[in-house]
TrEMBL record:
Residue span, Protein kinase domain: 87-366
UniProt superkingdom: Eukaryota
Species whose genome carries this gene: Forsythia ovata
GO CC terms of this entry: membrane
Protein's UniProt name: PR5-like receptor kinase
Amino acid sequence: MRCLLPPGSNANPRIRIFIAASAFGACILLVISILCVCFRRNYMARICGPFWRKIAKKSANLEDILEKCGPMAPKRYRYSDIKKMTASFKDKLGQGGYGIVYKGKLQDGCLVAVKVLNESKANGEEFVNEVSSISRTSHVNIVTLLGFSFEGSKRALIYEFMPNGSLDNYIYEREKKISPLGWEKIYHIAIGIAQGLQYLHNGCNTRILHLDIKPQNILLDQDFSPKISDFGLAKLYLRKESKISMLGTRGTVGYIAPEVFSRNFGVVSCKSDVYCYGMMILEMASGRKNTDMEFDRSSESYFPHWIYKCLLKDQDIKLRCTVDKAAEAIARKMILVGLWCIQTDPENRPSIDRVLDMLQGSHEALKIPPKPFPSSPNRKLESAPTTSISILCQDSDRFL
């Protein structure tokens, strides 16, 4: 190690030993550092590789979708544009399971609703679902997708702005914050939603199942015309397909059709959307949530049974503003149609085309349906395919 000391140096041997040991130690540290870097790269590639491959796959799927849309494809924005149009996410309109919705403004002054999806949704499936399904639609009762942003894990969707918010703000008597709608308007909203579903089921080359129809996902424009929104759970399938995969499907408590979480009740189809729709119009007619906790403590805890009991006894269900015969006819019609829509067996539910016929016809022509869930659904639910839906029970005799 003489080369480490200046020429002619008479350094103590201990110093020579110290310098030699230091040089050797530095070499060891360098080797260890190189090995750590190599190990870390391999480890990160092994751990994060699948994540980035999923991101790349979703991005490729999205590009294919946009290419098929051609000139009708929604506009793509940079994430910096999203921040600018929302004034750095200043005005929050609402929040759901997949992200937060903010009020925004485009450069031309047009107001928009910007849904920023949670970054924790790693594979972006709900984002691609929404873009792939809604970009195929063009209907007065389907919300319009104006644009999107997709930069890695940062995703946002830009929709037309609905000034009157969502339907849930208007229909629940107990929690209403805004003056309730009149019966004529409620009826026309029910018709409009059914027409939107009819379009999704029959008006597109590829059928679209929404699978999350509920008041929170029905937006109202300046004239209170309804528009179906939030296609994060939507499924696309060809008309020749008799069933679709539901692995990993989620849903909202109170609106999930039985067959979605257990094949013992049948196969998932357009009738699954009919179930959601039926439960929703029962809420619209009664002004009560189907999961109202106060009723859950009473003997009338199961919402459809409560309505069915009142219907059979021709009791006043305390429907809002049923002060004349016309309002009573609308209320009774919506209840009868809703009860048909939530039959346990999908084959006993009407198609959405038939639902529209029933709503637009006379209530006197409608027969009273069988009581919903006439027997306990205690079948081997544990044999159902694994999904992220939990069995929505509070005791052994009730579900949903």
